[in-house]
């Protein structure tokens, strides 16, 4: 038996009916709801798995909220090693 899930959030309508793009908080809430649904079917390790995934989501939401600035002295040859020469 296959269960169909509703699609990920594309847009959200508020109480007044205005449609807007989902914010990172909206996407995190959607992910948490899906995670809860999946973990409800898991065995005895569900609580540990849930704690781990929620901690990862917190880290990601912090990165989304405050992305690291691009350095002004960015140079590809300094930040990535050169590719090896071809034979």
List the helices and strands and how they pair.
Blueprint: E1 12-13, E2 19-20, H1 24-39, H2 46-65, H3 76-79
Antiparallel strand pairs: 1-2
3D architecture notes:
This protein is mainly alpha-helical and 87 residues long. It has one domain (1-64). The chain is 46% helix and 5% strand. The chain contains 3 helices and 2 strands, in the order E-E-H-H-H. It has helices at 24-39, 46-65, 76-79, and strands at 12-13, 19-20. A two-stranded antiparallel sheet has the order 1-2. A hairpin with a 5-residue loop joins strand 1 (12-13) and strand 2 (19-20). Helix 1 (24-39) runs antiparallel to helix 2 (46-65). The longest helix is centred in the middle third of the chain and has 20 residues, at 46-65. The model has no long low-confidence stretch (mean pLDDT 64).
List keywords for this structure.
46% helix; 87 residues; 3 helices; 5% strand
Give start-end ranges of low-pLDDT stretches. none
How big a fraction of the residues is strand?
A: under 5%
Distance between the termini: 54 Å
**Largest β-sheet summary:** 2 strands, antiparallel
Number of helices: 3
Tally the beta strands. Answer: 2
Summarize the structure.
This protein is mostly helical and 87 residues long. 46% of the residues lie in helices and 5% in strands.
């Amino acid at each position: 038996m296959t269960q169909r899930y509703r699609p990920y959030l594309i847009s959200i309508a508020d109480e007044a009916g205005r449609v807007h793009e989902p914010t990172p908080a909206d996407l995190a809430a959607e992910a948490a709801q899906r995670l809860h649904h999946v973990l409800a079917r898991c065995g005895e390790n569900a609580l540990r798995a849930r704690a781990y995934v929620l901690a990862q989501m917190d880290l990601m939401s912090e990165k989304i909220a405050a992305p690291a600035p691009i350095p002004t002295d960015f140079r590809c040859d300094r930040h990535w090693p050169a590719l090896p020469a071809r034979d």
